[in-house]
Automatic annotation (TrEMBL):
GO terms for molecular function: monoatomic cation transmembrane transporter activity. GO terms for biological process: potassium ion transport. Residues 134-228 form the RCK C-terminal domain. Signal peptide: none annotated. Pfam families: TrkA_C, TrkA_N. Residues 1-117 form the RCK N-terminal domain. This is TrkA family potassium uptake protein. PROSITE patterns: RCK_C, RCK_N.
Length: 228
């Protein structure tokens, strides 16, 4: 697939590099030539241009892109101008980065339905981890449901999912389990995570493994507390 990423700050740079590593064709643009030059070997294509300049943006293959991501975060004015310009040029899929409630309101007024708030999402995930030390990571699916990574509670170590009966007792679904191991890389050890595949009734819950759970946060917290 082909993606265009506009703005190569920390977020835009990381996004463009990851998409390139996944095998997608990525065109990444930024106003600063030094940043463009620095990333030219890590992203499919990099270009230096002003994303608020209509003619410059029109030179990009907008119609061929599966999505155009406005990753500008530091300059809200430039971000909104760029988004408005893409809307005028009838780009079929625009994804915007939002850093404030005002910007979110303006985006919604422009009928941009896809936007991300990376700072807010990261803060919420960290807050959950700080609130409960057994939560390893989290992803909010909706206002009601979340996907949570948590250590296998000691009460269930050595049991299969059928024996633990977590879905019936706590109204949560175990998506998979993750094994943690240490590997050596360039003289340093780092944690390596490997999922066991889609969980079944025969999946064994081992000490030190991570459960990947789907459900309401209150039910997941109840499972963690009861399983200690």
């Amino acid at each position: 697939m082909k993606y265009i990423v506009l703005g190569l700050g920390h977020f835009g740079k990381s996004l463009a590099i990851h998409l390139t590593q996944m095998g997608h064709e990525v065109i990444a643009a930024d106003l600063k030539l030094s940043i463009v030059e620095q990333l030219k070997d890590r992203i499919t294509h990099t270009v230096c241009l002003d994303t608020t300049d209509r003619e410059a943006v029109k030179s990009l293959p907008l119609k061929d892109a599966n999505a155009v991501i406005v990753a500008i975060g530091e300059d809200e004015g430039a971000s909104l101008l760029t988004t408005a310009l893409l809307k005028q040029l009838q780009v079929k899929r625009i994804i915007g980065r939002v850093v404030s409630e005002l910007q979110k309101t303006v985006m919604e007024a422009m009928e941009i339905s896809e936007y991300i708030m990376p700072e807010e999402e990261a803060a919420e995930r960290l807050a959950l981890r700080l609130d409960n030390i057994d939560i390893v990571d989290s992803f909010k699916v909706s206002d009601q449901y979340s996907i949570i990574e948590t250590k296998v509670p000691s009460k269930y170590v050595g049991k299969t999912l059928k024996e633990a009966n977590l879905t019936n007792i706590f109204k949560v679904i175990v998506l998979t389990t993750i094994q943690i191991s240490e590997i050596q890389e360039q003289g340093r050890s780092r944690a390596h995570k490997e999922a066991s595949g889609i969980a079944t009734s025969d999946t064994l819950l081992a000490e030190g493994d991570i459960l990947v759970l789907f459900g309401e946060l209150s039910n997941i917290n109840r499972l963690i507390q009861k399983g200690e």
